[in-house]
Amino acid sequence: MPFAKQLIRVVTRVFAALLLVAAITFIFVRIVPVNATTSGFFYLVAVLLIATTGGLVESTIASVAAMLCFNYFFLPPVGTFTIADPQNWVALFALLATSLIASQLSARAKRRTQEAFDRQHEIEKLYSLSRALLLTDTTRPMPQQIVQQIAQTFSFPAVALYERHNDLIYRAAEDEIPGIDVKLRDAALRSTVSFDRNSGLTITPIRLGGQPIGSLAIPDLSLSDAALQSLLNLVAIGLERALSQEALNRAEVARQSEELKSTLLDAIAHEFKTPLTSIKAVTTDLLSDPAHDLPKYQRELVSIADEGTDRLSKLVTDAIELARIEGGKFRLKREIHFPSSLVSAAVRQMKPFTEGRGINVSAADDLPLVWVDAGLIQMVITHLLDNALKYSPPGTPISIGARSGDGRVTICVADQGPGIPDLEQSRIFDKFYRGKSDQNLKGTGMGLAIAREIIRAHGEEIWVTSKPGQGAEFCFSLPVAEDHNA
Fold first, then answer.
1. FRET pair for 50, CA 20 to 30 Å: which of 42, 66, 78, 290?
2. In angstroms, rounded to a whole number, what is the distance separating the alpha carbons of residues 476 and 372?
């Protein structure tokens, strides 16, 4: 149908061009007789006018018609197509050549002007589309807004977009587009351009970073290659922005969920603290005061309750500390300390739990001073000691050492337990993760996770070195005070 309309327009313009040549001929032959030079000039002006207002086809036909009329009506012998004077041959072909050259130049200039106008129009539409995509509503699906904006901006009757990440197809069309889904997926998968004859849509892959991320189906209209590529780049940027926004929304939901969980955990843990303190006071009084002459079995029961209270109190303390870290309420109070003092203080805290175990401490007093939160670093050491006590046989010693090197002080806690398999070493510091070597051991898997976050807050690292059957060594680094002008 568009070809038929275009053909009718061309035929109409050709008829109008011939009519103009005929009118000039009639006027200068019947009404106002003129010489050959004047008529040739007017024929040339008419051809230029036709070339300017029409196209190359009309002006070329008008040039030939003007030559024939000029020969027949104005060059002697008049009324025939023969030419007596050789000079008239020159005039005739000069008219034809001039007309054809003028037609070519005029048509080329008109075509370039039209192309420049079309490119400017495309740029304006692309700019309008880019502004519309920047102002999209984040509460609605971005791909659906993209296809609607493309259809509206370019006045396309139908647009379809395939997003490969979510395997979804979005449409903006007055009617359904049958069979387009398969071709959209195939274009994205094979990264090839195809044409659907049924719908008249061209399906083009959308690439970002050289990789196809989807495909776009638009009418096979006169978009230039540069405009089409710019359109595809805008769609690719829009899809990438949609994925980034989706990831950001998921991260925000996860963060809010984590904050809520941490707040609840902190509140519950603090509620446990008060009754645990009361129970501990009672059990301590019953066990330590000679006035309470308890029978042996009752003393054993009270001792069990006292040990259980200690264990539960430690779990609650760990839960509070973990909730503080995850809730962003974690602040360092840095001061200058001796590494040996930090180790000694942590060993003293763990003394009730290390009865009968050899604790070999190797931390020289001349080590560089460190700039740390003493209470938190002591907590890290106690967690590592507690972990070593749990996972090493009862009778085997535990070693604690401190050394300096590379501008850092490193503290290590080593045991002679069963060791940690390589696959578990990458997860050993994860929250609530427990080693699979002995699932009967008591613990929640929070200690190493807390230790890791404390060391990270100091800007340092914590790691484990272990081989099955050869024990495990947990080490962490501390910043030297001199590095911070303390």
1. 78
2. 13
Measured over the CA atoms of residue 305, residue 311, residue 313 and residue 315, the dihedral's sign is negative
Residue 420 in contact with residue 472, Cβ under 8 Å?
A: yes
In this structure, the answer to whether residues 341 and 225 fall within a common structural domain is no
Which carries the bigger pLDDT value, residue 327 or residue 381?
381
The whole-angstrom separation of Cα 335 and Cα 333 is: 7
Cβ atoms of 370 and 481 closer than 8 Å: yes
Average pLDDT in the 352-378 region?
87
Complete DSSP assignment for 270-289? HHHHHHHHHHHHHHHHHHH-
Are both 196 and 321 inside the same structural domain? no
Asked whether the predicted pLDDT for residue 289 surpasses 60, the reply is yes
Q: How many domains is the chain built from?
A: 4
> pLDDT tens digits, residue range 411-457?
999 998 888 888 888 788 887 676 655 555 555 667 888 889 889 98
Residue 297 one-letter amino acid: Y
Pair type for strands 359-363 and 398-405? parallel
345 and 266 both lie in a single domain = no
Give the tokens for residue 27.
């006027």
Q: Are residues 349 and 397 in the same domain?
A: yes
C-alpha distances out from residue 175 to 158, 172, 204, Å: 8, 9, 21
* Number of Cβ atoms within 10 Å of the Cβ of 209: 7
- Shared domain for 119 and 180, answered yes or no, is no
Structural domain range at position 311:
254-326
Q: Lay out the sheet containing 359-363: strands in order across.
A: 359-363, 398-405, 408-414, 472-479, 462-466
How far does Cα 310 stand from its chain's mean position? 49
Are 473 and 464 in contact by the 8 Å Cβ rule? The answer is yes
Q: What is the DSSP letter of 32?
A: S
Q: Rounded distance, CA 95 to CA 41, Å?
A: 9
290 and 377 both lie in a single domain: no
